Amino acid sequence: MFESLSDRLQAVFQKLGSKGILTEEDVREAMKQVRLALLEADVNFRVVKDFVAKVTEQAIGEEVTKSLTPHQQVIKIVHQELINLLGAENVPLQEARPGPTVIMLVGLQGTGKTTLAAKLALHLRKKGKRVLLVAADVYRPAAITQLQALGRQLNIPVYSEGTQASPPDIAEHALEHARKELFNVVIIDTAGRLQIDEPLMQELEQIENRVHPIERLLVVDAMTGQEAVRVAETFNQRVKLTGVVMTKMDGDARGGAALSVRAVTGVPIKFLSTGEKVDGNTLEVFHPDRLASRILGM
Amino acid sequence: ANDDPITDELWDELEEALLQADVGLETTQYLVNRTLDRVNRHGVKKAREARDMLKAEMVRTFAEYAGQKRPDAKPYVILVVGVNGAGKTTLIAKLAHRYKNRFGKKVLLAAGDTFRAAATEQLETWAERAGVPCVSLGQGADAAAVVYKAIDAALEQDVDILIVDTAGRLHAKYNLMQELEKIRNIIARKLPGAPHETILVIDATTGQNGVLQAKAFLKAAGVTDVAVTKMDGTAKGGIAFAIAQDIERPIRYIGTGEKLDDLALFDAQTFVDALFAEPKTVKG
Ligand SMILES: Nc1nc2c(ncn2[C@@H]2O[C@H](COP(=O)(O)OP(=O)(O)OP(=O)(O)O)[C@@H](O)[C@H]2O)c(=O)[nH]1
Ligand SMILES: Nc1nc2c(ncn2[C@@H]2O[C@H](COP(=O)(O)OP(=O)(O)OP(=O)(O)O)[C@@H](O)[C@H]2O)c(=O)[nH]1
Ligand SMILES: [K+]
Ligand SMILES: [Mg+2]
Ligand SMILES: [Mg+2]
User: Fold this and answer.
1) % of chain A exceeding 90 in pLDDT
2) pLDDT category, B176, cuts 50, 70, 90?
3) So what's the ipTM on this one?
4) Using one digit for the tens of pLDDT, what is the confidence trace for A238-255?
5) β partners of residue B76
6) Is the pLDDT of residue B1 over 60?
């Protein structure tokens, strides 16, 4: 996933390392290559600009150019700036006390919310939780059937009221049901929506007001380009996101959207999701510090 | 303003607009440098003229691949391919609606995604809404068997247009791409000359990965046309330019929503103008 970004950056620093003493010119040339690598990895345009400016400013300083191992100093700076972008440590899912813990999944169309709902349910059941899935997408043809099929496959119950009920009602009734039946976790699968679709964004706010989900996770497709930041900013304004999940990590997308969303919104990435199958180990807890090191081959 | 002279900032501004639209750095630099050249050669002085030159260059490139000849065949078979969640099934519904209700064609759908949960139910629901029949063997069936049965049905029932849905797949997955190639070959063996059209569906939010998608689907499925979906959002779909240029195929359709009527024919000028326009703030 992040391999090709990693390869590109490492090549840049290897070249820098072969130079011994570094001139300002060397650093600027290397940063041009860094910019290229980041843009080709879909890191947001503004994030790249900011990142390159910060690294350049530090790297052409005297402490670096006059040091004995200047290129290692540059790598150290880049590493630190990557951590600044990605966040330092994993931020785990929160639990509501008293329960049930309500988790709402939101995002653009087709990013992988319904699939993630099932994966997350399995992940939490493995931790001993009783999980209820909630079918709150009443728009997409066969969305409910899709969630029910996944629930059946994993033997996890799905709460649904068909397509005639309103999603905020469904969510509220599902929570009542979960309280009565002593479920620990309620995962709400919402319909995909554009962040500029006013009625549907209001619907999300209504769900939030009615059931107060402690986790509001934005589901982002790893193949997303520059748009990721704009989407995340607006969803964050409307429902105050608590986390991001990157899906379709099994492809060869370079994952720059992931770096950007955290950088711009401050919302942590909590999981990486891999594969269409919902059973097995399809959900990876995200560790930003490890990723920063991995990108630089440290 | 319109009469602004050309300054260095103009080139930065153009580069920024293209990069933010996901055109990609390499393509962006190519476009900007080419425009810079032409501006110098033709002694262009105004920013607006330079901007128009760049746009015209893009429109020209798109036009190079348009207007290809379509085979005359009955049934005319359309295969729809793309990565997961791009909008294939929804596009098929819109095409069915367009061919049937606008052009009076007899349309048949084939539920070739037998993998994803409720994929067949989704297509069946759409078929019902569009008022066209759908051949489906349910989830878990062999996709090849669905295609076989659908072609037989199309021949028997005098169908004009058969549209085949396929499971979404990531282009980097070798096995899944091979499977797609197999489906394509089965169609060709069963009905020589088919598929007559293979549409690659690209989500407008796609980043630089889109070119790799296009290359891989071209190789496995012989893409003839590209559809860009979800253009009703704020994404500009600039990767479509890099894709058209790379695989030399026309952008044919634009998806503009989740309803049957939300389909437009691609218009290069509209697309390029929108690429440089301020992002929408409200849908519609
Ligand atoms: N390869 C891969 N495919 C995935 C992954 N997650 C989801 N998908 C696929 O992506 C497509 C869309 O997934 P869904 O779960 O239906 O997405 P959604 O966000 O619920 O879609 P809407 O409800 O229409 O907005 C399906 O084909 C899934 O199988 C993943 O991590 N890897
Ligand atoms: N806003 C918007 N949403 C769209 C458009 N086209 C498709 N969608 C939505 O995108 C999501 C995925 O669409 P599908 O047609 O299921 O995509 P697919 O490529 O068939 O997905 P898989 O079969 O799972 O790979 C659904 O929620 C659709 O309603 C469009 O043009 N605009
Ligand atoms: K998508
Ligand atoms: Mg869904
Ligand atoms: Mg589909």
Assistant:
1) 71
2) very high
3) 0.97
4) 999 999 999 999 988 887
5) B161
6) no
- DSSP label of A283: E
Contact flag A142-B139 (C-beta cutoff 8 Å) = no
Q: Determine the pLDDT at residue A158.
A: 98
Residue B51, classed as helix, strand or coil, is helix
A285-A287-A291-A292 Cα dihedral, nearest 10 degrees: 160
Q: Compute the mean pLDDT over every residue in chain B, rounded to the nearest whole number.
A: 95
Q: How far is residue B91's CA from residue B216's CA, in Å, rounded to a whole number?
A: 20
Decide if B122 and A141 are in contact by the 8 Å CB cutoff.
Answer: yes
Helix B47-65 / helix B268-275 crossing angle, nearest 10 deg: 140
Write down the H helix ranges in B8-159.
Answer: 8-20, 25-42, 47-65, 88-97, 119-130, 143-156
Alpha carbons within 13 A on the beta-carbon side of B58? 30
Q: Can you read off the two tokens belonging to residue A284?
A: 């990876």
Backbone conformation region of residue B257, classed left if phi is above 0, alpha if psi is from -120 to 50, else beta: left
Query: Which of B120, B128, B258 to mutate to test binding with chain A, by most A CBs within 10 Å of its CB?
Result: B258
Pocket, ligand 2, Cβ cutoff 6 A: A 109-110, 140, 192, 194; B 82, 84-90, 113, 116, 119, 168, 201, 229-230, 232-233, 255-258, 262
For a ligand 1 pocket test, name from A104, A114, A120 the mutation site with the most ligand atoms within 8 angstroms of its C-beta: A114
Judge whether A122 and A278 are in contact, CB under 8 Å: yes
The structure tokens listed for A169 are 């009602």
What is the tens place of the pLDDT at every residue in B187-236?
999 999 999 999 999 999 999 999 999 999 999 999 999 999 999 999 99
| CB A145, CB B121: distance < 8 Å | yes
Mean pLDDT of A174-189: 98
Residue A270, H or E segment: strand A269-273
